[in-house]
Design a protein that fits this description.
Keywords: FAD, Flavoprotein, Oxidoreductase
Helix content: 40-55%
Organism: Tepidiforma bonchosmolovskayae
Distance between the termini: 22 Å
Protein name: Acyl-CoA dehydrogenase
Strand order of the largest sheet: 2-3-7-6
Shape: globular
Domain Acyl-CoA oxidase/dehydrogenase middle: 121-215
Order of helices and strands: HHHHHHHEEEEEEEHEEHHHH
Family: Belongs to the acyl-CoA dehydrogenase family.
Largest sheet: 4 strands, antiparallel
Length: 387
């Protein structure tokens, strides 16, 4: 069992850390306040070659894997959680093509997405179907050499800047077996962004609400060329990307704890530095315990994905990492803000932003409750056994 990072991993981590400090940190407050997509962040990731890590080399990516992607996400999320989401989006909408696309489809779309010459968004959630993805209502009906797509998708991260959309739609009967996956031109006639959200946090990456009105999608854009495979592709995608959401949580927690610790070193109260009080020291000790546990769970989960272990029998490991790390982010952000007291509540410091951003992580890509469903099923089915 080797816990050491490889030279390649360390280089990726250092590259992301440099971008985080030089490009992201100076603008973190601004992009939160404006809610505008930070194209300069994306260009920095593109220039550094960080956008193709979740895509195999044979498909035009760099093929580094999910663990190094998590390392990069962790570094940038220390300063701005939306920057971590931007890196997640290098994998979330592309993994369905990796898992479900034909070789021709993979070569058609993935090289440009890996190079940062195009952007994509993952369209699964609907107005009445979030966690209950097997019952989505968006429909695609075959019409000659095309499918006619109608329906709505909501809370689509990165949708406002996407060139392509990975859309899950019903082509058959009810339930999971009736769902297929398509790649849709985001600018095709009938594709419309009806609104964007005024979000509590992670405001730098807008979420869009899409409507599809008689959109003609070429049949060759049906992933895999076979109907009914979409739900399985969606689940494999979510499973394999769960460590990256956990990495956002780990990075956010590290950033919040580090900021509060430096403040506590400098702040005086009752004639001493705040950090000299044992009650405060114990708060930081608890933060460190949680962060280290979360990091190890996330790294293990990412390693499993890179070993090809992201199918149902391994899903509980990925869910444990996602649930714990995102909940740690919320607890550490809460405690770090508490250390600063009234100052932490003010926008003069980044902790109120970390606190708002952390709350998203327990909802996206499977709520904490959904993760517990996966974990409890593993216990019941004896995939996870103690004793």
């Amino acid at each position: 069992m080797d816990f050491a990072l490889s030279e390649e991993h360390r280089l990726i981590k250092e590259t992301a850390r440099r971008i985080a400090r030089e490009v992201i940190a100076p603008r973190a407050k601004e992009v939160d306040e404006t809610g505008e997509y930070p194209h300069d962040f994306f260009e920095a990731f593109k220039k550094a070659g960080l956008l193709g890590m979740a895509i195999p080399e044979s498909m035009g990516g760099t093929g580094n894997g999910i663990l190094p992607l998590c390392l990069a996400i962790e570094e940038v999320a220390k300063y701005e959680c939306g920057a971590g989401l931007m890196l997640v989006l290098s994998g979330l909408p592309t993994r369905p093509i990796v898992f479900g696309g034909t070789p021709e489809q993979q070569q058609r779309w993935l090289p440009a997405l890996a190079a940062g010459d195009a952007k994509a968004a993952f369209c699964l959630t609907e107005p009445d179907h979030g966690s209950d993805a097997a019952n989505l209502e968006t429909r695609a009906v075959r019409d000659g050499d095309h499918y006619i797509l109608n329906g709505n998708k909501v809370y689509i991260s990165g949708g406002t800047v996407a060139d392509y959309l990975t859309v899950f739609a019903r082509t058959g009967g009810p339930g999971a077996k009736g769902i297929s996956a398509f790649v849709v031109d985001a600018h095709a006639p009938g594709v419309r962004i009806d609104r964007t959200d005024d979000k509590m946090g992670v405001r730098s990456v807008p979420t869009a609400h899409f409507s599809f009105q008689d959109v003609r999608v070429p049949a060759e854009n049906l992933l895999g060329g076979v109907e009914g495979q979409g739900f399985n592709v969606a689940m494999l995608t979510l499973n394999s990307m769960r460590p990256t959401v956990g990495a956002r949580g780990v990075g956010l927690a590290e950033g919040a704890a580090a900021y509060a610790l430096e403040w506590a070193r400098e702040r005086k109260a009752f004639g001493s530095s705040v950090i000299d009080f044992e009650a405060i020291q114990f708060m930081f000790a608890d933060m460190a315990i949680r962060i280290e546990a979360a990091r190890n769970l996330v790294y293990k989960a990412a390693w499993l994905v890179d070993q090809g272990k992201y199918t149902r029998e391994y899903a509980h490991h990925l869910s444990i990492a996602k649930a714990y790390a995102t909940e740690v982010a919320n607890r550490v952000a809460f405690d770090a803000l508490q250390v600063l007291g009234a100052q932490g509540y003010m926008k003069d410091h980044p902790l109120e932003r970390h606190y708002r951003d952390a709350r998203q992580l327990m909802i996206v890509e499977g709520t904490s409750q959904i993760q517990r469903v996966v974990i409890s099923r593993a216990l019941i089915d004896r995939n996870l056994v103690y004793g």
